[in-house]
Amino acid sequence: MDNKWRSAITGGVVIGLLSGIPYVRLGNVACCMWVVLGGALASYLYIKKSPVPVNIGEGALTGAIAGVIGMVVEIVVGLPLTILTGYPELKLIAGLLERMDPQRAEEYRHQIEELANVSFTEQFFHAVFSWGTLLSLLITVIFALIGGLIAVPIFEKRKTDAGPPPPPPYFGGAPGASYAPPPPPPSYGPET
Questions:
Q1: Distances from the Cα of 115 to the Cαs of 30, 92, 94, 122, 187, in angstroms?
Q2: What's the sign of the alpha-carbon dihedral 155, 158, 159, 160?
Q3: DSSP state letter for 27
Q4: Is 0.70 topped by the overall pTM?
Q5: Is 11 domain-assigned?
Q6: Counted domains in the chain
Q7: Helix, strand, or coil here: 176?
Q8: What is the distance between the alpha carbons of residues 150 and 168, in angstroms, rounded to a whole number?
């Protein structure tokens, strides 16, 4: 397995676990913090193991791959954990709503109870095959890509070797003589 994939898998696992564990995932409320961090980690690991300087495009690609892997890990690990713990963040929101609008909080709690009565398999497949999951995948890939982009200028300190400068243009003449441009073509006078 090449370096880019190993780095992306590591970053993706970090994204998936931190974004999937109840309450820990609330860090993503701050501009997808865990996703950006995972994309940056993937890019950092890629830079660290790369024998040649890494450009921004490679960092972005590594971050985007980490985003896709992170979403898969979040679905496989985080979604079952959320279902089994009974949607703890939704209960937290219901508690906050209760302070502001008790009637609305009761409706919200009723919806959570109805959701809990649905089988695990039904909840899982409904959550996986929804527009919300597709939108979440898109957002995760974009923010992980941004993390990969940000990491390259921060962590890549090696300069790309452009090679020796090109030789000056050669306009003929003896080797070692000065490089003068050729004389202009002769003018034959005005045309009539």
A1: 27, 16, 14, 10, 91
A2: negative
A3: G
A4: yes
A5: yes
A6: 1
A7: coil
A8: 38
